[in-house]
Amino acid sequence: MEIKKDILWRVYLCFICMIILGSLVIGRAFYIQTAEGKYWKSIGDSLHLKYMPTNAERGSIYSENGDILSTSVPVFDVYIDFGADGLVEKDGKRFKENVDSLGLCLSNLFTDKTHQEYKAALEVAFKNKNRYYLLKRKISFEEFKALRNFPLVRLGKNKSGFIFDVRDKRINPYVLLANRTIGLSREDSSKNVGLEKSYDSVLRGTSGQRLMSYNAGAYMPVEGAEVDPENGKDIITTLDTYIQDVAENSLMKMMVNNNSIHGSVIVMETSTGKIKAIANLGIQSDSTYIEDLNYGIAKATEPGSVFKLVTLLSLLEDKYVTIDSKVDCEGGSKYFYGLKIKDSHLGTGVISVMDAFAKSSNVAFAKLAYQFYQDQPIKWWQHIDKFRLNKMTGVDIVASAGKPTIKNPNNKNWEKTTIPFMAHGYEELVTPLHMLMLYNAVANNGKMMRPYLVSAIKEYGVEIKKINPEVLVEKICSDETLLQAKKCLIAVVDSSYGTAHRKVFDSSYSIAGKTGTAVTADDNRGYNKGNKIYQASFIGFFPSEKPKYTMAVVIQNGKHSKMIYGADVAGTVFKEISDRIYNRYICTSNSKKNQRIDTSVFHFVGIKNDLHTILSQLKINYLDSSSDNTWANVNYRNNTAGLNSPQQILTMPDITPDVKGMGLKDAVYLLENKGLVTIVYGKGKVVTQSIKPGTNFKTGQKIILMLN
After folding, report:
1. How large is the average pLDDT for residues 266-289?
2. Residues of the chain with pLDDT > 70: what percent?
3. How far apart are alpha carbons 239 and 180 in whole angstroms?
4. CATH H-level, domain 52-237: superfamily
5. Confidence at 598, pLDDT banded by 50, 70, 90
6. Which of 159, 531, 630, 654 could, after both became Cys, cross-link 86 (CB 3.0–4.6 A)?
7. Residue 687 and residue 325: Cα distance in Å, rounded?
8. Contact at 8 Å (CB) between 282 and 261?
9. What's the pLDDT at 690?
10. Which residues of 610-624 are buried (b: 16+ CB within 10 A; e: fewer)?
């Protein structure tokens, strides 16, 4: 009996414990559902729902004349939700009725799979109930428009399950034009370069948010749960697409023909500091050229003889010399503390400072700098500091800007030979843009401008910020110094003994500038005597009497290059670009000052027989009173044309005729029959010629014709 009671007691105890435990579980469940329900529901939702950022539409980059240099176009990723209610209802009847025709349309559109392959892939995905099946990435807007009208897709998202995820793709409509300057925009913005990097915060806008649901191993967008992004703003650059194109083509032609290593051209508007063009090219392992680095802004090198302008300005400003002062070049060779400095052309004796500059005598400028600054180096360095050659340029491609290296008299590496070597362009590292800023300041009456590439920021076409020219140094030197320096720069081109005369002088407008040929260090290998790297430079401005543009051309040449000197390499490129700019922007703007009816329609010169044929075919009455059997002037007035004898110099031997207003065929025929070699730029009629009419010429001499 006692045993039975003991067993019952234990059973009752277990039963009571089970009731208590069950009550606790039910109570806890009720508490969680009522008191903590919202909390745990939010935790559950957070495991299946999350907000993801959506990128804003990136702003575009424009040239100053309105051309799009970089913009964004939409691309689409295509997904299919095979669990969509409209797709699975009635045992997938809608899908099964359309899958065959859909596969055929997809095959015809994308051409990467056959009709049967697309159909089979779709059927497998439908069978597996894939909720976010990737059909295609990065389809274009045109493909997207076509796809929306395909079978099944045209029924809408709920019935077809098709989901389109739109995003932007960055393109440059002009492809490689100013590619390194405009830059590249990548998904990882830290890897951007150029203006795309410097103005990334302006261009990219503010990201939005989109609620995504996690289903079957993938996140799907939740319809209607979005925060729209704020689109990026547009930037207007200072670049001119015409000047940029001319600069790149001229640089490429020289680089290829001369087998050069790398080169750069920078064109600046003199009065403002606006950069109108930057062209950069570097040779690759397969001997092709691409814009692999912004050499004009990022790469600091020893400038060579173009640095002599620094020495000249310093000497003139301190009144140690005038351009008429005499200096003995000592035959073009001199030692300074055991180190030899020599001129590229030996044999020069006592000459003026201006002649020494025009002939680019290394010895002359090394001697002058040593004579006046060796015992007061800080005074020499103060000029360099005022010219801002030891500072960053301030250009708005911040990440790409190269840092100059200028020795200071307080540095440990300051040597007794530092000043004579710095004076003619060695023992300092500066970028082409640094030197261009100085030359531009001389052209701009002493006012040094900050170089810049962006002139405005716009939002939906409305200007919200204008970037104005900025003066860095109000006056780099006195007017007297500027006047003398300009005379020296003009002498480099105009005087028969100037280093640039042979390549740059022959023009219908005036150019001032300086050549430079430097032996530069070959990266980490130093000055390799067996494989010298020559840097050819020409920096100048035009027209010299009233400068509109300043330009720097810097090209590095190696052992395989046919030409190495500044005039031959850089000067040739400078001249070709300046001719095109002058004809396009300066010559035409000058002619508008006295605007009148275009008389070329009513008066021109041509071959007499051709004129007879043209006038007869056009049924124009004409009277021929010309005595010349080959050429005739034609004037058209009151519906009647009159032919008379042309200018005498047209047929005089060794005298340059005036071919302005002629068509190309007649001008070339006339000039080449006289023994001239014609070089032609442009289309239409002749507007300028490089040799003045009425002047003598030599057989075989080149004459440049600019057509407009």
Report:
1. 93
2. 80
3. 13
4. Penicillin-binding protein 2a (Domain 2) (3.90.1310.10)
5. very low
6. 159
7. 42
8. yes
9. 76
10. ebeeebeeeeeebee
Residue extent(s) of CATH 3.30.10.20 domains in the chain: 599-707
Q: What is the pLDDT of residue 596?
A: 42
Quote the DSSP letter at residue 191: G
Is the CB of residue 209 less than 8 Å from the CB of residue 54?
A: yes
Tokens (6 digits) for 66:
């309105």
Token duo for residue 708: 């407009």
| pLDDT value of position 599 | 41
Phi, then psi, of 387 in degrees rounded to 5? -80, 0
DSSP, collapsed to helix, strand or coil, labels residue 427 as coil
| pLDDT recorded at residue 302 | 94
- Residue 124: partners with Cβ closer than 8 Å, 6 or more residues away: none
DSSP-derived letter for residue 567 is: I
pLDDT 10s digits, 176-186: 777 778 876 55
Question: Residue 313: how many CB atoms within 10 A of its CB?
Answer: 25
| Rounded Cα distance, 92 and 39, in Å | 38
Q: Do residues 386 and 332 lie in contact, with contact meaning Cβ atoms separated by under 8 Å?
A: no
Which amino acid is present at 704?
I
Both tokens assigned to 542: 């035009």
- The CATH T-level fold of domain 599-707 is Trypsin Inhibitor V; Chain A (3.30.10)
Extract the tokens encoding 692. Answer: 């003045």
Residue range 241-502+535-590, CATH number:
3.40.710.10
Tokens 């390194």 map to which residue? 180
Instruction: Tell me the pLDDT tens digit for each residue of 509-536.
Output: 999 999 999 987 655 555 555 567 899 9
What would the two tokens of residue 257 be?
């023909």
CA–CA gap between residue 63 and residue 459 (Å, rounded): 16
How far is 300 from 11, CA to CA, in rounded Å? Answer: 95
Write phi, then psi, for 621 (nearest 5 degrees): -65, 140
Query: How far apart, in whole angstroms, are the C-alpha atoms of residue 150 and residue 291?
Result: 43
